[in-house]
Amino acid sequence: MKVTLWGTRGSIPTPGPETARYGGNTSCVHVEGDDGSQLVLDAGTGIRRLGDTFPSPAGRVDLLLTHLHMDHIQGLGFFAPLYDSEAEVHIWGPASTTQRLARRLTRYLAPPLFPVLLRDLPCDLQLHEVPCGEFEIGGFRICTAMVCHPGPTVGYRIWEGDRVLTYLSDHEPALGMDRFELSELDPEWISGYELAADADLLIHDTQYTHDEYGERIGWGHSSVGQCLTFARLARVKHLIAFHHDPARTDDALYRVLNEAAQAEDLPFRVTAGAEGDVFKL
Amino acid sequence: MTQQAIEVILTRQLAAHLSMPTFLVGADGRVLDFNPPAQRVLGARLEKARNASARELADLFEARDEAGDPVPAEKLPLLIALEERHPAHARLRIRGEDDRERELAVTAVPLIGQGSRFLGAIAFFWEVGP
After folding, report:
1. Measured between beta carbons, which residues in chain B are less than 8 angstroms from residue A97?
2. Does this complex have an ipTM over 0.95?
3. What is the CATH number of the domain that holds A136?
């Protein structure tokens, strides 16, 4: 599979010269299977540029949403295949205890926030609620599970053959723990562990520094250090730091990640996710 | 090893921060966890309760009602929450490992997660008298 990052920023788009290297668009990742199957992970603002790369007609596209916070759906209305009458677009998103996925998406894709109603989109649009066990899309096998983040939020584990990509864009596995240290952790009690275990590529929330996390406990995100510990626990092979804090400039992001990664003898590779990065599994 | 559902993980995290003695039981009826205040009130016998079934747990504590009569396991709030899947409340007398009898108010509720998944039950204990 080929994994391309189209938006790596958390919370709010941050265009500007100080974020040009890693990018200012919010969460969006494209996954292309060996058989041509197309997955899009989240519909942050990065999805607009991605949408322009799809052929017309776009065929089948599956958009997998982790949750419905604004930074993960803000680009949805600008995703070109939605306006392609010959495209078949499947949107997968977390179930809630109160409202159907369509109704919750309509809160954004409707006036006064957006001029086009979800039901008026010309594509063949199909909505699916997750988690719903394992399912298959083309050559991909996909498993979802609820993870620790405010509101219904899921993570995705995507197999193609024996290769595994795990996507945990917004994740706070350390919530409520006094010490998030490897020696203290029992995988049975760690959010997201099964999704990430032995993944070839883990895309994971690294929004905060250690000090910032202390002031934002419960906001649903991880510090860089917590993410490194989680990745070590899960024995991943390659970690992509993701969901960068909007206040983090390129230079600061590079410094924070490098300092954290160099402080430990890590058994996996770490990459600061940047728009345009491509990874082949 | 199967990872617990996020709702169960978060419930355990909550219990770890409460001063109220709390028991967490999985959907299969096994005791998943109890917090330090539960250990204080119910004694070191709790170590035997880890991974025991809720019914074995009931036997372990020989609960009695306010009149001093034994309470059958199926009448205990945790068993009711687990097996009948509705909230239950009772006042019970339990003798701790320190041989002191305590009167406890117990409230148990089933844990129903996202998608109406039944995940087990949680019981809160409140010491109401010697």
Report:
1. 114
2. no
3. 3.60.15.10
